[in-house]
Write a structure and sequence with these properties.
- The structure is a homotrimer of 418-residue chains.
- Chain A has 15 helices and two strands.
- Chain A has 418 residues and is mostly helical.
Amino acid sequence: VEQQELESFKKNMDDLFLIIMGNFVFFLQPGFFLYESGTVRQKNVVSVAFRKFINTTISSLTYFLTGFALSFGDGNGFCGFQYFALVNLPDEMMAECFFQYTFAAVASSVPSGVVHERSSTVAFVSYTALTSGFIYPIAAHWVATKNGWLSRLGFDDFAFSGVVHAMSGATCLAAAWMTGPRLDRYQSGGQRRVVISPHSVPQMILGAFVFLFGMIAFNAGSQGSISQSGDGSIIAQVTINTLICAMTSAVTGLIYHRFIVDRSKKNWNYSSCVNGSFVGMVAICAGCNQFQCGGAFALGILSYLLYLAIQAIVEKLKVDDVVDGIAIQLGGGYAGLLSVPLFKDDGLLTNPSKSSPWGLLINAGGGIVIMLWSFSITILLYIVLRYFDLHRVSPSDEKLGLDMVIHKEKAYDHTTRK
Amino acid sequence: VEQQELESFKKNMDDLFLIIMGNFVFFLQPGFFLYESGTVRQKNVVSVAFRKFINTTISSLTYFLTGFALSFGDGNGFCGFQYFALVNLPDEMMAECFFQYTFAAVASSVPSGVVHERSSTVAFVSYTALTSGFIYPIAAHWVATKNGWLSRLGFDDFAFSGVVHAMSGATCLAAAWMTGPRLDRYQSGGQRRVVISPHSVPQMILGAFVFLFGMIAFNAGSQGSISQSGDGSIIAQVTINTLICAMTSAVTGLIYHRFIVDRSKKNWNYSSCVNGSFVGMVAICAGCNQFQCGGAFALGILSYLLYLAIQAIVEKLKVDDVVDGIAIQLGGGYAGLLSVPLFKDDGLLTNPSKSSPWGLLINAGGGIVIMLWSFSITILLYIVLRYFDLHRVSPSDEKLGLDMVIHKEKAYDHTTRK
Amino acid sequence: VEQQELESFKKNMDDLFLIIMGNFVFFLQPGFFLYESGTVRQKNVVSVAFRKFINTTISSLTYFLTGFALSFGDGNGFCGFQYFALVNLPDEMMAECFFQYTFAAVASSVPSGVVHERSSTVAFVSYTALTSGFIYPIAAHWVATKNGWLSRLGFDDFAFSGVVHAMSGATCLAAAWMTGPRLDRYQSGGQRRVVISPHSVPQMILGAFVFLFGMIAFNAGSQGSISQSGDGSIIAQVTINTLICAMTSAVTGLIYHRFIVDRSKKNWNYSSCVNGSFVGMVAICAGCNQFQCGGAFALGILSYLLYLAIQAIVEKLKVDDVVDGIAIQLGGGYAGLLSVPLFKDDGLLTNPSKSSPWGLLINAGGGIVIMLWSFSITILLYIVLRYFDLHRVSPSDEKLGLDMVIHKEKAYDHTTRK
């Protein structure tokens, strides 16, 4: 057997691995659709369906046009500038390109979730295109390429707790803050927060299961290859860590609500449990390749606490977030960034070395820079949108619901005789 | 290391590749169910559920009984005749057999979609069994085996834009034409076409996402092996081309409706966008392994135009198609067949050689023969069905809805207190 | 090329194979959710959603805590005792651990299905944790490890028709019997059985498709490796056998209902067909790696007959089973156990040898021991639960529905203007 034949076979397997994992991550797109369309009121379901489908459209075309080039083309420490429109992209980078696209699709899908039921079509198209074609790719370049300035400083974020999740959490915060709350979200002069109940719990829960499925691949695929010695056991550890962290965080949320928030009502709250699982999934991304199971367990609890803190701040600021995406992405994502220098084998809490504090500083500080990056560009975009009064639909349209106003379609027709 | 050991390992990987891709293509079955059951009125939802599940049943049993034998058994230029009921099928062809089955399942599922809400159970069973056990397998033999007469002439259809999609589009046309329109589809003596709105948009959209997921594997799996040098980058190119073509076609549909069809109403139409993505997915099958990204992009636009033309003809003929399947499959499929000799590396529009016009002639003509094949057999079947008045349910049954008439079940029971 | 490099590559592929197949089996979790939440009445849908999500949570944490240790740790013939909380689990067993977890998730999910709409939260948590952390892992140790006492006797159950399905069927029977029927299930002093119609047929059918998808991987992944000579064709045979057996059983159910049960009403019953497919999927697990296609076909018919017999007994005993899980799991699972010594290459009905009767005795007797094991422990649990009156909700709560009582949430809000 020639070595060359084996190398070519290995390369094929790496490509197949990235494509299959990419397919699973791509399947997060219907996950977002299900979860978000279940969450909104019936009058905005077609709008959610439309935007989630269009998100796939816009994110793929923009990522292939500029996103991959800015991320993974040769360039400087700030961004790449090669392979625009995938021109001259070498065959051996094709699989990587698809896999990376599926991350851009995730990064650009979350923000549209938090501002549903009031955001305009123009705003939606703008921030989606901007996130997948510009903001996310540049942050990815900083962290995931040898040249990237954060990468050179030692920023450690395996499956992008920071670059995808904390980044998009900051976009979410900017978008929700600049868009303003839904009309009927606050009563009594803005003092009382109104619970807006979801129109379909089964759709939400199906979406939550799809997230679990997709996020396992999100993390496992981040290994990038399957042909090198040890790859197999790393993706297995990643998979188990993802489950443990997500499920521990889910249980934490469940217990917190049953015995603290709702202890008088004694009711079991599915949504605290589901949101908990999201927080855990997001948090474990950064260190899932390095942690022992115990680290994943501890992070499951700690990340939920950070999520609660951020959720409280978001509520205090009267920022209206349809899917709780800000607290999940910021809390989970930033907890993930902090966890790596703390929990990894030579981490500050496990077996500290001289360089351990530096690792914490870089991950903590780098995460803030990434969040500021996406936050400030989104704010700039919204300043322009607000100037032209394009950031949200009119109050009367919002009351009618976006389905009849923008799409002239109803989500359901339950007429039995027709 | 012995060469033999590596070869056996490679063969295992090829089998695994086909089985995983086949599993994804098999997942198109719930995709059809979701999309079609969302599209129909509530009184016919159980009927759609039943037929889509039974489609899986019939297509698997008939394909294993006769389909695979007629396709891939040794035989002559017209059909194979070996391995009926999979008897004596060699172990090394098992994975191929499963993968090919999933294509037959797709080919036989589309036709039942276009004649929902009025087609009889007998008609449904007949054309499903005929398509998966006879019509499709023979067309596949022509194109996908060395012996096949179209294959020998140089017919070039990588992932079956022609053999699956244009073929089934012609079956759809024959079935919908012979079945006749739904009772309430045309008013004022047949002059005015009535819009029948879907009963659940979320079900449709979830189905559309499942299609995207499944069709990527439909095209990637068509490479057939993953162990040969270059396989990995080809399936990656295939994946990206599928996304680009589908999404370009989706955007074309969206823009066409917003700025041409609905320019006065100014509404954004989700269904033009979703149907556009279907057209693109179907069109790219034939050439996704050969095209550069630019070719996929151009085909996305052109295939949508052919789809529009065929849709106009279908409407002109007053053929009632519940899911727009005729125009999608014929328009997308035939555009795909034409695209290969035009856009491939030595294509007529890129770098023509002396044999290029011949390639166009074969693909254009072969596609027509395939369509005539499935069209005429379906017409023959319907002549028999109509003779015995078995082709559709009675007008009174159609008004009541197939659920209560054929299944004696309602799709939903939204009684809150019981 | 060094042999070592190839071995390490092969190990990676085995790990990847187990992780991908495990991901597909994990996707059975939303399958259970969809099928069961569609089946219940609208007032209990949130409860089903909650429990199915929590099932994933509990089963993963308990399996990793004690389940894997009791199953696959070194130990004696009864159970293992190593790797509790996955401590010191070697890297090379990680992928196996995840794959095995997905089976525990299935085994523990079925029982909660049969007692929906009346079972208490405490009961649900207890039997779920007990099944995934104790009952199932110990049965798996008996059969799937070299040391296991049934394994040493020659018990032959490839993909766990007995260890997962018949085992959980016995748990189901114990739970449903001890819980008692739903209040409105029997009228006229318990004489007349009331049909409780599902609240959403589309949700059920989507769940059924997801089962088909997941069970193919359940069986294929049971091969455990993809790198050994012949692995590829075995998983292909397994896949085709699973389809054939499931679909034959589906057709048997369909024909039985159309021409025997409902021959006067002449209606086609989707649920007999869907349940038939479940029976076939469950039955083929045990022998799918050894049977020819003909064996899978015969088993499809025979397993349905055993299912019918058990279904009749369950009805006779007035045990109320929301999803027909007892008959499916016991009938399908036990038929599977019996089929191996009958239909395999040197089976009693094919080519009997001197040891063939012994094989039948072991599979028949071993299956009964496994069922008694899970049945008796579940009964013990319920004796305790009933003593403290914790086994089901109060009659008034049951009438109101678990959603408003336990969760204070409605599944749907179809208000159109709000």
